[in-house]
């Protein structure tokens, strides 16, 4: 055990030192925190193996030996925060505070965003900025004054001649981060794993002009010894900072109990996606500053505050191999096969590598430790590989010269990064087309998942899209298949039959015309009475349709000139699929009761899908809006309504109605 604890401690120290000297992480924060928690647990269980300078007791950097900057001692240590991850942790924190302060009846809490950057302390004297210091090891930091002077949003002179020390976070705005990584990739430089690493790398540059160039920014959330400025609460101190010209996030909500805190944390958990800086959680602070002293600190963190961490978006794992996938358009894309990890609540085994150029530029190899992340995309992406953890056994990834499915030589269109399989009857491509055809946004054939498509193809029951409608010929053979059975075959065949009544726009979408998704398919259906009309349109005519650009128009035109596609459409017509746009019945004006009124809905509705309610509103002459604003007349509220409802309540001019009330107004319910 002693050996294990020692190794764990050394491993953590290596990661930590590397981060503080190179501004780059070797593993994700999540893994680091997990290892640290394990060490803490072991040190508790085996106190005899505890060491004085263990990472479990020290804040931040453990070795400042190699710093290029002047070392400065903090007047007051820069503490860290203890972390929490669940609603229960928050309630526990609140209960703990209450227990320590039995006398206090009206405890309130300030809730703030937890910025994911690097902490900074700034000293002002008589309103003049005199020094800026990083956290360092919490006791001694690095003097980065010269660099900080280049951050435009940090005032060099305050609006009043006060002397004080403030603490905050240096961040690189997301827009700037993306710009920077794009440039680095183009120049063949290593990309930064995340905005925090980029901010750290930028702040600790010796050439201060780079700071301005990259657009580094800072937000402040703490006034040291606020009680000396006649301030009673933390929230007042934040207002005070803002009045002096210091940038704050503007988010410091005063709340009363754990349920209010939890509900606002949920709100910000969604809202944070729209901010231009990275947040990794929220911070809860007892608002009354007087109580801070009573609550005191542990070695690492104050007892009057706690951080709530949002689920990590980034984790590190290993690439075990690469497979090349053939999509429905023939595009061949690399997918990383990973050592399984958990990421934002799901198990992840594969991640996108985009294209070969990206693999080459980022020098990603099989066997590499990699950062993977789930951002706005649902599919995880490989962000970068960690070169420092290579042991020499990594394998360089090669771009295929032949299709991995049908072995046809691949092609690359001029100026394009992607390679394609040119074979129209490539099984990989057909499988992709079939999966897309039956998918939700297209024909939405329930129970026809990608596994079944794969099986049907393999067994030769279907060879192309039209064959789906002839699958009933194989009923008996299907029933004999493992895991199928009579009932599920019945269901599948019924779902296939029912799909024949899917509206024209869905069928158009399902055809898989390049660049045409469900929204553009709807535009096309609305502007052409039937498919014959659509097929006869010229590129110019197609471009006249609102929302259809030149690239898409050309793709649609070419698609309908392809003999194979013409055959497909004929085949589907013969099976009775819908290729005609249904006429919408237009109501007489006197029945359009919503003329001049605007609507928006929020939450889950019971009686309508999103599209249905929008159509109902339009049918009655109303207009759908996408955001809450003064222009909105009605907000229809379903279950689990979120931020839109709150905003509408704040505006006070909006009529807030339930789904039921809405149905009564349109005469759908008495
Ligand atoms: S208060 C003694 N407030 O998170 C309390 N910290 O994990 C000092 N951070 O060291 C910290 N946003 O670098 C505080 N609104 C916020 C914060 C915040 C980000 C950082 C800070 C701190 C770390 C703790």
Automatic annotation (TrEMBL):
Gene3D superfamilies referenced in this protein's UniProt entry, alphabetically: 5' to 3' exonuclease, C-terminal subdomain, 6.20.10.30, BRCT domain, DNA ligase/mRNA capping enzyme, Helix hairpin bin, Nucleic acid-binding proteins
Active site: 114
GO biological process, one term: DNA replication
CDD domains given in the database record: BRCT_DNA_ligase_like, LIGANc
Binding site for Zn(2+): 403, 406, 421, 426
This protein's GO CC annotations: cytosol
PANTHER family assigned: CHROMOSOME TRANSMISSION FIDELITY FACTOR 18, DNA LIGASE
NCBIfam families linked to this entry: dnlj, PRK07956.1
Name the record gives this protein: DNA ligase
């Amino acid at each position: 055990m002693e050996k294990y604890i020692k190794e764990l401690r050394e491993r953590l120290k290596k990661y930590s030192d590397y981060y503080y000297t190179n501004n780059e992480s070797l593993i994700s924060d999540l893994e680091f925190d997990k290892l640290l928690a394990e060490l803490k647990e072991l040190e508790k269980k085996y106190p005899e193996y505890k060491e004085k300078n263990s990472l479990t007791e020290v804040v931040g950097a453990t070795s400042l030996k190699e710093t290029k900057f002047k070392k400065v001692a903090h007047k007051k240590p820069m503490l860290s925060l203890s972390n929490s991850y669940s609603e229960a942790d928050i309630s526990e924190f609140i209960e703990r505070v209450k227990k320590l302060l039995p006398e206090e009846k009206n405890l309130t809490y300030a809730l703030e965003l937890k910025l994911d950057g690097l902490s900074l302390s700034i000293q002002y004297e008589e309103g003049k900025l005199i020094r800026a210091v990083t956290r360092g090891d919490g006791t001694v930091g690095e003097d980065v004054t010269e660099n900080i002077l280049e951050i435009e949003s940090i005032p060099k002179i305050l609006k009043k001649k006060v002397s004080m020390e403030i603490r905050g976070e240096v961040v690189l705005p997301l827009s700037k981060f993306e710009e920077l990584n794009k440039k680095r990739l183009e120049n063949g430089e290593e990309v930064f794993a995340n905005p925090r690493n980029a901010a750290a790398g930028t702040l600790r540059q010796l050439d201060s002009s780079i700071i301005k160039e990259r657009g580094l920014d800072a937000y402040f959330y703490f006034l040291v010894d606020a009680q000396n400025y006649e301030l009673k609460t933390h929230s007042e101190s934040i207002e005070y900072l803002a009045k002096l010209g210091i940038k704050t996030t503007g988010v410091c909500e005063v709340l009363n109990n754990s349920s209010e805190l939890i509900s606002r944390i949920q709100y910000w958990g969604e809202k944070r996606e729209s901010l231009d800086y990275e947040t990794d959680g929220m911070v809860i602070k007892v608002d009354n500053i007087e109580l801070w002293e009573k609550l005191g600190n542990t070695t690492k963190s104050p007892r009057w505050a706690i951080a709530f961490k949002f689920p990590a978006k980034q984790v590190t794992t290993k690439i075990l191999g690469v497979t090349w996938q053939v999509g429905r358009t023939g595009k061949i894309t690399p997918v990383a096969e990973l050592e399984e990890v958990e990421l934002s609540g799901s198990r992840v085994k594969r991640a996108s590598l985009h294209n070969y150029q990206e693999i080459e530029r980022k020098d990603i190899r099989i066997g590499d430790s990699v950062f993977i992340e789930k951002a706005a995309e649902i599919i995880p992406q490989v962000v970068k590989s960690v070169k420092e953890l290579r042991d020499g056994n990594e394998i360089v990834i090669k771009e295929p010269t032949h299709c991995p499915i049908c072995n046809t030589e691949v092609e690359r269109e001029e100026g394009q990064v992607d390679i394609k399989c040119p074979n129209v009857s490539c099984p990989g491509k057909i499988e992709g087309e079939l999966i897309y055809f039956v998918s939700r946004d297209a024909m939405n054939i329930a129970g026809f998942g990608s596994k079944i498509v794969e099986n049907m193809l393999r067994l030769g029951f279907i060879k192309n899209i039209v064959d789906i409608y002839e699958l009933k010929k194989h009923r008996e053979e299907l029933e004999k298949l493992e895991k199928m059975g009579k009932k599920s075959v019945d269901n599948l065949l019924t779902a296939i039959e029912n799909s024949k009544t899917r509206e024209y726009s869905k069928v158009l979408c399902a055809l898989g015309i390049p660049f045409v998704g469900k929204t553009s398919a709807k535009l096309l259906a609305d502007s052409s009475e039937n498919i014959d009309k659509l097929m006869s349109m010229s590129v110019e005519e197609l471009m006249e349709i609102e929302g259809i650009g030149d690239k898409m128009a050309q793709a649609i035109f070419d698609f309908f000139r392809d003999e194979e596609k013409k055959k497909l459409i004929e085949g589907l017509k013969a099976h009775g699929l819908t290729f005609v746009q249904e006429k919408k019945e237009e109501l007489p004006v006197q029945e359009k009761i919503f003329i001049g009124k605007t609507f928006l809905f929020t939450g889950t509705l019971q009686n309508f899908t999103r599209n249905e309610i929008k159509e109902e509103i339009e049918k009655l002459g109303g207009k759908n809006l996408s955001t809450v604003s003064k222009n909105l007349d009605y907000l229809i509220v379903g279950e689990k309504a979120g931020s839109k409802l709150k905003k509408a309540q704040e505006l006070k001019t909006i009529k807030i109605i339930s789904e039921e009330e809405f149905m009564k107004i349109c005469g759908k319910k008495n």
